Amino acid sequence: MRSPVLPLTWHLARSSGRRGLQSQLLAAVVAAVSAFVLLMMIAVSLGSGARADRTDWRTPDAAPARQATAVQALTTTYVRHEPVSVVSLAQLPDRKATPAPPGLSSFPKRGEVYVSPALAEVMRELPANQLADRFPKPESYGTIGAAGLASPDELVAVVGRAPSDPAVSKAAGGGNWFDAGQTARAEVAGFTSTKASLFTAPDQQFAVLGVALLVMPVIVLAAAAGRLGAARREQRLAALRLAGATPRQIIAMTAAEAAAVGGAGALTGALAYAALLPALAQMPYGIGGWYTGQLWVGLPWFAAVVLAVTALITVSAVTMLRQVATSPLGVAQQANPRRTRMIRLVLFAGVLGYVFFSTQGGQLGARQMVALLVLFYGAFWLFGPWVVDRLGRIVGRYARRPATLLAARRLSDDPSGAWRTVSGLVLAGFVAGFFSVSQLHFGLPGQQGQVAVTTGDSAPSLRTVAEARTLLREAGVTATVTVPSEDDFNSALGGTPGLIARVSGGEDQLDAAVTALTPVGAGRLPFTQDYRTAYDNVGVDRIGVVSTATLAMSFLVAAVSAGLTAAANVLDRRRVYSLLRLAGTPLKLLDRARTRETALPLAVLAGGTTAMGVYGAFQLNKAADSTMNASGALQLTLCVTVGTLAMLATIAASRPLLRRVTANPAQTAD
Questions:
Q1: Any idea what the Cα angle at residue 402 is, between residues 399 and 403, rounded to 5°?
Q2: Which of 105, 580, 34 is nearest to 267 (CA)?
Q3: Partner of 534 at 20 to 30 A CA spacing, among 85, 321, 464, 568?
Q4: How do residues 415-443 score in pLDDT, each as one tens digit?
Q5: Model pTM?
């Protein structure tokens, strides 16, 4: 016999009227937003790893002496404070031909220079004495293809040289600790390496941290889609249950409806992600924008996200049916308030204690951090309704105004529903507290306006100093050349033998000085303060970008979740609001009660999570041996204020809907 579940589900969905269609459309929109954000987060995480893989060929791994066919040297120079990776290659005589490096069609010959498209553009924009003169003068420049670049905005040069050229024969890392990741030399037989560039290696780690902090608010948003229109659905299914429908049939009907709505929305969001890939690739992260293919997650991830969002919405909708299956009469009469139990507090305290002691004394891996974050979010998701329930009882006991009393009764009657409205911003408060004060500051001594040149194993001679002064004077650069003591580790040279030019003027003069002093270095390009602070600046920059993006996305998702949930609650409580209007309750009073229903748990719970985020940031800075960012408190206050205002604004946006559904209370109160 053919099951009546699907035909009946379709019939009820069609006959649910305009307001039922509104709830379904809201659920589809939530599913689309959730799928889009999840795919974007996965794309950034996977794409960061793919970008790092495209830079590992520049850091040479030494081959056995008999098998080596070429010499490779990596050095880093800076122009306009942006890093330029320079790879010098020389074919060893009487050895077999070396394969072409990634992005090139053949191994570069002596005197050939290949540059990335972004570097070529910068070289065209700047005078030659500020950048182009740092490299040999070829008849024409070759172009490095995408296979050798991590980003279209990356500045990279590959220079073919002779084995005796100082750029490959003398260049080596280890002169000082600032060289780490920026200077290296080895005899190679190919371009296989496992060490990514300094400027791309940490990208994925920070991206995963941002995803771990953002994924729970997105899951909360997706779960909210399954509960949109829950009250109307419960009333309808309770009537069917009383008419003889079995619990299995009720669950099947709900699952079919939620899966259809959630699947359509999730697929729409996923298709929007695919269509917007070229635009998403323009978003800068780390070294710049993306190649479009780097942000494509692949069909398995694409399908997995669509199915996961659909399943999450379906499970969320089905879990609301426990009372319908066990007590349909109570649901139909709306007689059973949804109380919470003390066990939630006990479990929350246990999880919080475990997380606290797990973060004490010792470095945590990325997987451990993600696991603890998921555990923390799960504990708060369990604890939130309990706090809302108790808060509603306490406020209701001492309420002196009608709006406050109505808000308190709603909190205690449906704590889970009230928690779902504010949960996004409550969890976003943890993100705000964590990132607002976790900006790292290492306090390295500044060497602005200085150009350092290494000159070999011994102190530079008077002839070398005179040559440097002559080159600077011919380049039109005003500078003072000095030779610091090798015991002065606070200088730009960090104790390495060489000389320092203190340049007067702005960026143009500084870049011109670096270019002019290039012939003086012992196979090493001159370097500036950017070189010295590169390692720290990369970490600070990445956590700054991730924090800004995560904060923005967290509050955006929270605001969308709150707004949609508030709109759905208006539709679900249409009968209650209509009865209150019939009893003479002013519309302004109902709206004020809705606002307080959100503001009360928000003030209590968001404050707690924000404080915990600040504690997490303190632990991070302690592990990194850095100090707190002085502007963190101001940024945190701004984040909380903007987030709260956005939350209240989205709730206020559903005010016209409240006015519309209560316009004719006598017709809808039954």
A1: 95
A2: 34
A3: 464
A4: 877 787 777 777 777 777 777 666 555 44
A5: 0.78
